[in-house]
Design brief:
Distance between the termini: 74 Å
CATH topology of the largest domain: Helicase, Ruva Protein, domain 3
Shape: elongated
Number of domains: 2
CATH architecture of the largest domain: Orthogonal Bundle
Oligomer: single chain
Helix content: 55-70%
Order of helices and strands: HHHHHH
CATH class of the largest domain: Mainly Alpha
């Protein structure tokens, strides 16, 4: 039983040491939820394939502190995202905003799916209009 207690204690210490966002949580649960949502939607500019919530890079830590400071000052989510876009560009956001620059990103999937559906429809329709080969059917019937 002592061994189990020692292992559990060590795991608690290790998990706290490996925590990425070591700052204390906001006292207001709604503010903490906003903070968690924002940092999970911002790209780590150094890692580029992680959110700043998951990254342990110095820049990600700096951005988390900056976002925390802005939320403590009473800034809205939109103001925080505007600050990040002005400073780092649309690339900083995992979900880029709908604008003239990002219109291709938003419309390309719809266009490609529509084009694929159109091609599939044409292929199926053309195959349905082909004549049935009677010779192949008569061979199958004679073997049965």
């Amino acid at each position: 039983m002592r061994l189990f207690a020692c292992i559990a204690g060590l795991l608690l210490l290790v998990s706290h040491a490996a925590a990425i966002d070591a700052d204390k949580a906001f006292e207001d649960p709604a503010l903490q939820a906003r903070y968690e949502k924002i940092i999970s939607e911002v790209r780590c500019l150094k890692c580029q394939n992680q959110t700043i919530k998951d990254s342990n890079a110095f820049l990600a830590d700096d951005l988390r502190r900056e976002i925390r400071r802005m939320l403590e000052e009473g800034k809205t989510d939109a103001e925080v995202f505007d600050f990040l876009v002005v400073r780092y560009g649309e690339f900083a956001l995992y979900r880029p905003r709908m604008s003239g620059k990002t219109l291709v990103l938003w419309l390309a999937p719809v266009v490609f799916i529509g084009f694929g559906a159109f091609i599939a429809f044409r292929v199926v329709r053309r195959r349905m209009s082909l004549p049935v080969d009677d010779a192949a059917e008569s061979i199958d019937e004679s073997q049965a």
